[in-house]
Design brief:
4-stranded mixed β-sheet, 4 strands, 72% helix
């Protein structure tokens, strides 16, 4: 067995073994703490709601076990099983190199999506329906799937074609050209998403509640935030889960509330949730994440440029003769296996941003309103209050509920304490 093939197989076993161990830890920890909510939530979350959240988490985790097995199976089938090579051999005789390469990469996405479709259907119409969250119809589900696929083809196809073209004609510096295209593509998507992409899937209407809109505009003015508008999204078409976010760049920035959120929370709580979202803006979290993504992508493309010339890389992953498309395919299949151990760093970075946004919200609204809003969202969304610490360390982009509430209660005590004259 070639050396890199052995290294890759060992990395797959370690990576998926770690994922499985973490998921089993999560299931065991949630089950063991199913009986009662944490003390800080004892008077805030009814026992039956806490148990529902535990059962919902466990149900999703059981599907997660199947997803892990499917993910590992597809990875090994595409690489060591020769799947990428077979697709290359099938497409190359009938198409030009650029079109064959584009078709190969799109085919990998299609096969993966079809393989995962049964699990997606079970999650939506089994688990989500069982716990009262699903509002999607089968027709709506497949309509979304078709639109997503067509959008991926319309946007992703030309992007892949352009990347392969640059790889072929730009010599040793092709990866710098691709990096520039990748940066431009991501910025364009961020700018155009609110007005061109999101409306393909949801209806956005200006916030009609005059009193709430007035409160929101006053908060925006205090925070120094300008947006193209405050909108309500018909999230209830698909789910009863509630959320809020702001999106877009420059003049296209907009604030979006799910209609479900507007019915779940009081005006005070909605204002507090918005203050949290504005905290992300004021701390430039989106800008920082974009900058980090660009730096990391530059490093990844430099690595890809080196591996493009390495026969051992292709041979070790089941490809006999390298081509630009097979190099891209193998790289993006293998990369997550080797990067999984650094997942906690990215999660830690995200949690840091959430704490900063909470602190901003506590200064610009009442901390107690943020606390009650979070408690309501934890309860209504059946979010577990007792995740396994190691699982949370790896996966959770938001702080654990107990930690988050404790921090907000501290801000509330500080804000309520008498200030020295």
């Amino acid at each position: 067995m070639p050396a890199f093939q052995s290294i890759f197989l060992a990395a797959v076993i370690l990576s998926f073994g770690l994922k499985l161990w973490l998921l089993l830890r999560q299931m065991r920890h949630v089950w063991q703490h199913r009986g009662l909510p944490p003390a800080v939530f004892a008077a805030r979350i009814p026992v039956e709601d806490h148990r529902k959240a535990a059962d919902y988490t466990l149900a999703k985790a059981r599907v997660g076990l199947l997803h892990l097995a499917l993910e590992a199976g597809l990875l090994l089938a595409f690489t060591l099983g020769g799947g990428v090579q077979r697709l290359h051999d099938l497409l190359t005789p009938h198409l030009s190199p650029l079109l064959a390469g584009t078709a190969l990469l799109l085919a990998l996405f299609l096969v993966s999506a079809l393989a995962e479709l049964p699990l997606s259907l079970y999650h939506q119409f089994g688990i989500e329906a069982r716990y009262g969250f699903n509002r999607q119809t089968p027709g709506g589900f497949f309509a979304d799937l078709i639109k997503q696929s067509l959008l991926g083809l319309v946007i992703g196809g030309p992007l892949i074609l352009l990347v392969l073209w640059l790889m072929g004609i730009m010599g040793d510096t092709w990866w710098l050209w691709v990096w520039g295209v990748w940066m431009g593509f991501n910025l364009a998507v961020l700018a155009l998403y609110p007005t061109l992409i999101a409306p393909l899937f949801n209806k956005f209407t200006p916030l009609a509640d005059v009193e709430l809109k007035s409160r929101i505009e006053a908060l925006l003015q205090r925070a120094g935030f300008t947006a193209s508008g405050v909108f309500m999204m018909d999230g209830s078409r698909r789910s009863s889960h509630g959320n809020a976010y702001f999106t877009g760049l420059g003049k296209n920035k907009r604030i979006v509330f799910f209609d479900t959120l507007l019915t779940q929370l009081s005006p005070d709580q909605i204002e507090a949730v918005l203050a949290h979202e504005l905290g992300h803006f004021k701390h430039r979290h989106i800008t920082k994440r974009i900058a980090l993504m660009f730096v990391l992508s530059l490093g990844m493309l430099a690595l890809l440029a080196w591996l493009k010339q390495a026969a051992w890389f292709h041979a070790g992953l089941g490809v006999a003769a390298s081509a630009d498309a097979t190099t891209l395919a193998l790289f993006f299949l293998a990369l997550p296996v080797f990067l999984f151990p650094v997942t906690p760093l990215m999660s830690l970075y995200s949690r840091k941003h959430e704490f900063e946004a909470d602190a901003f919200a506590a200064r610009h609204s009442e901390p107690e309103h943020i606390i009650t809003a979070l408690v309501r969202l934890y309860r209504d969304n059946a979010a577990t209050l007792t995740p396994d610490p190691l699982y949370s360390l790896f996966y959770d982009s938001h702080p654990k509920a107990v930690e988050r509430i404790a921090k907000l209660e501290y801000y509330d005590r500080v804000k309520s304490s008498p200030q020295p004259a």
